[in-house]
């Protein structure tokens, strides 16, 4: 038994990037539990003070001695384990942690977390902590896709728990699909972002728009575009993580809004304009990443339009929709207004024209026809254009990384206002 007190185990904050950070690593009963040993080792190598809590089922895959050797700290496997002199371990460890990482997180543990069940050391620690929590699911594809598991994950995300998406590939059961524990590097990156993210936007009020509008033709058809909302959601998430007060104006998206932000939904471009105006007056910066339709049908049929024969044609009269970003920029006053230019040709010329004609403070231009960039992808390659003629070309990178670079530019603009 370790006789030292928990508070004496913090590492030198200057040791490395995670020096001085205490991480509680929860390991549950998945075949991927063996990879938790590598995660514990790498976190320790980066200077973190790592404490491990194992479920009874996790012990069937990997022993407590492994984690003691890798971290140099006592391991909790039972709720009544008391390895620290004079302290209730499940309370002391939980309340001293800077971050809790559950990797792998089984469907069972995720369900317990969502419903507040505390029947072992790990789930008791999770109820007793106020630290940020990350979970890295690992399970069979059918289990991961089950409505109960997905509902539990949504519940956790709504509470601010970060979910590290599982990978796709061959699973331990021999099937192929989504459910593999995320790569170690992805998990370490998520830990670093959670612990080391800047707070340079504390108190800044940012409105971000995301997704596509839908302009109805009849009760079942509409005009729209391929915008998934991924870029806008990445911006909202990054701004939240940097301390901003975030409102997300959400059109039709293929991704869920991040937890911890206000969400206001809209459908058509006209509705987008209305909700944008209501939130614009109280913001410091508006980032228009939504993709509103440029045109909408003049007449909307009250009943479904029928196709009378195979050779029939249909003509629609279209009218221009409101230019939301221009309308806001005309009345921006001290506010920062950022627009996006999604182009397929003459990228720079079209983006510069938008910057000047709409009176924007920054334009994020991207060639949506380029591989890996634009709509429905997880990556983007953009150019940041400013009114002073300066430009910054960013290579293909994850949209979350692009979001941080855009927010860096917004941050730099704020003092001038």
In summary, what is this structure?
The protein has helices spanning 33-45, 64-71, 89-96, 107-115, 121-128, 141-145, 147-158, 184-196, 230-241, 269-280, 324-330, 347-357, 399-413; strands at 22-27, 49-54, 75-76, 99-105, 132-137, 162-163, 167-170, 176-180, 205-210, 215-216, 222-223, 245-250, 262-265, 285-288, 295-297, 318-320, 336-343, 362-367, 379-380, 382-385, 391-393, 397-398.
Polypeptide structure, described:
The structure is a single chain. Mean pLDDT is 89; it is low at 11-15. Helix 1 packs parallel to helix 2, helix 3 (89-96) crosses helix 5 (121-128) and helix 9 packs across helix 13 (399-413). The longest helix is centred in the C-terminal third of the chain and has 15 residues, at 399-413. This protein has helices at residues 33-45, 64-71, 89-96, 107-115, 121-128, 141-145, 147-158, 184-196, 230-241, 269-280, 324-330, 347-357, 399-413, and strands spanning 22-27, 49-54, 75-76, 99-105, 132-137, 162-163, 167-170, 176-180, 205-210, 215-216, 222-223, 245-250, 262-265, 285-288, 295-297, 318-320, 336-343, 362-367, 379-380, 382-385, 391-393, 397-398. The protein is built from 13 helices and 22 strands. It has an 8-stranded mixed beta sheet, sandwiched between helices. It folds into 2 domains: 6-196, Rossmann fold (3-Layer(aba) Sandwich), CATH 3.40.50.1950; 205-300 and 314-416, Rossmann fold (3-Layer(aba) Sandwich), CATH 3.40.50.10300. The chain has 417 residues and is α/β, with parallel strands linked by helices. A hairpin with a 5-residue loop joins strand 7 and strand 8.
